[in-house]
Structure formats: structure tokens, C-alpha cells
Amino acid sequence: LFWFNCSLPLRFWINILKNPQFIFDVQASDNVDAVLSVIAQTFMDSCTIADHKLGRDSPINKLLYARDIPRYKQMVERYYSDIRQTISVSDQEMNSSLAELSRNYSNEVNHLVALHELYKYINKYYDQIITALEEDSTAQKMQLGYRLQQIAAAVENKVTDL
Fold first, then answer.
1. In what residue span(s) does the Plexin cytoplasmic RasGAP domain sit (predicted)?
2. CA-CA distance, 144 to 21, in Å (whole number)?
3. How many CB atoms sit inside 10 A of residue 40's CB?
């Protein structure tokens, strides 16, 4: 059962650890990529039940944190033990809590700032996005490329012949 519980963190977190560009707008250098691979390997070793026999010929990334792995494994086991001991929450209680959070923070989200940040990202890849929208048949039917051009013109306060 332990391996099953760890499969989601391993599939999800290992992917995020090794590929931060999936969620952040970053490009990792080769050095950073190597470091992230070591961290991901350590995380993976911490979440597996099997004990790894290490020797002189073991990869350096496994040797680097070999002394820490038993402690990390205990932390992972404690984490799952704590989850097993928590009291279940009903769907109604969960929905109520989420609705309350939504009400409490509804005024804290600045939609214009969020839209502007989204537009900055779109503007960075504008040409590629327009090309992709013009090549996609569904996007063509919905005139998404044209609509994006209109939005860009409005945001940039540009007058166009659209």
C-alpha cells in the first residue's frame, strides 16, 4: 500500500522537480538540471520501500545523500501515518469550507492585475500563439486569432485595420 500512496507524489513531484518549466516560466541551465536530477533522485529514493545497496560503483547522485535517505524515509512514513490518522471530512463540510474561503478572499483577487500578467505572457509568445490559432481548425471557426489580435490592439491602445 505504501508504494501505491507514493505513486502520485513520485509521478507528479518528480516531474515538477526535474522540469520546473512546466509550472514556471524558466529555462534551467545544464548545471541546474543536473542538480534538480539529484534532488529528484533523492526524493524518489526517499519514497521507495526498497533499500538500495550502495558501493564504490554506485552513481554519485545516490551516494551524495545516502546518509540522509533513512531519515527522509521516516519523514515520508510519518506523513502517510498522519494522513491515515486524520478525521475524514464530509463533502458538505468541504464544500462549506471552500465556499467560505471563496467569500473571504473574493475581494483580494485583482482581476485586472491577473489579466495583465496573463497578457504579458501571451505577448511574449504572441507570434507563436497567433500562428497556432491560425493553423487550428477549431480556433479558426471560433476566430480566436482575430479575437486575440483585437485584444492585443485594445491593450496596446493601437489602432488597427481589424
1. 3-129
2. 26
3. 19
